[in-house]
Amino acid sequence: MHVYTHPACLAHDTGPTHAERPQRLAAVTQALRERVPGLQWHEAPRAGVDALSRAHAPSLLSTVLETAPAGRIMLDPDTALSPDSAEAALRAAGAAIAAVDAVLGGATARAFCAVRPPGHHATRDTAMGFCLFNNVAVAALHALDVHGLSRVAIADFDVHHGNGTQAIFERDPRVLFASSHQMPLYPDTGHASERGVGNIVNAPLPPGAGSEAFRAAWESKLLPAIDAFAPQLLLVSAGFDAHRRDPLAQLQLEADDYAWLTMRLAAIAEQHAGGRIVSLLEGGYDLDALRDCSVAHAQALLAGGRTPLPMA
Ligand SMILES: [Zn+2]
To answer: Is the pLDDT of residue 309 over 80?
Structure first.
C-alpha cells in the first residue's frame, strides 16, 4: 500500500488554538511509520491547476493560490489561510491525484493520503470548515475525466457531513456519495432526504449513537448502496472525529469500528473495483484517537479484501 504525504502539509498555520493543527498530521504519520510495517511512503506532488479546476471555480483557486497573505487570515470563522497554506493545499490535492494514478495504473491496489488541510467541506467555490480544496472530489474527477472511469463511489465516515463533496456531485450520476455523520452538527446538511439524482445516500446519527448504531447504518443502508452502484474505484473520506475521545463531536466510536468498516469497504472494492481504494485523511482532533484509528484503518486497508482479518 502506498502512503502519500508531504512536509508542506505541516506548515499550513491555522493558529495556536485551532483544532485542525499540524500535530494531527504528525501524529498520524508517526503512528503509521511505527506501527504499520509494509507501507510504501511517497512524497506528494503538487496538484495542477487543470486537476483542481475540475472540482473548483476559478474564484476559489484564486483565493487559495493568489491571496498570498502576509500573515494568517481567516476565510471564515473556522478556515485559516496562512502564507504556507497554498503549498499545503496543492500537496494535499496532489497526494489524492498521485494516489489515484498509482491505484489505477496498477502500482498498488490501495493508497492512503496523510494530508492536511482536509477537504470534504470545500464546495465548488467556497473554502469552509477547515477545508481549502476538496481533495476527494479532485481525486474522483481525475479518475473519471483523465482515467475514463464511469463509476466512482465515495464513502465518507468523518463525523461531519461532507457537504462540499455532496454539493459538487449531487447532479453527477457518475459518482455515488455515501456518508454517515452526526446530526445535529456542523455543517447541518446531510439529511436522509437529500438524495441528489439518486446518487447521494446520507445516514445521519444522533449524538451518543455509538458503535452499534454506526455499524447498523453502514450495514443496512450505506454499504448496500455502494455495492449496488458497483464502483470501479472506491474513495474514502477518512475522518476519525467520530471516535469517543474526539472533542468536536459525540458519536462515541472505538478504533475497532474503523477497522470493521474498512474491511467491509475493502470487500466491496474486491468485488467490483479490483480491490482499488484511495483513502484520504479528513478530520479527527484527538491525537491519541487519531493514532489508533489511522493505524486500525491502514492495517485493515493492507489486510482487507482477499485475506480475512481477525477482528481486534
Ligand atoms: Zn469532521
So the answer is: no
Q: What is the pLDDT of residue 136?
A: 99
One-character DSSP codes across 129-151: TTBSS-HHHHHHHHHHHTT--S-
For residue 259, report the distance from its CA to the centre of ligand 1, in Å. Answer: 18
Distance CA 190, CA 285 (A): 21
Please give the model's pTM, rounded to 2 decimal places.
Answer: 0.97
Q: How far is the CA of 26 from the centre of ligand 1 (A)?
A: 18
Report the pLDDT averaged over residues 30-47: 97
Ligand 1 is an ion; residues with CB less than 5 A from it: 158, 160, 239, 241, 283
Q: How far is the CA of 107 from the centre of ligand 1 (A)?
A: 30
Contacts of 50 (CB under 8 A, 6+ apart): none
User: Which residues form the catalytic set?
Assistant: 121
On the question of pLDDT at 306 being above 90, the answer is: no
Distance 306 CA to ligand 1 centre (A): 30
104 is written with which cell numbers?
Answer: 489505477
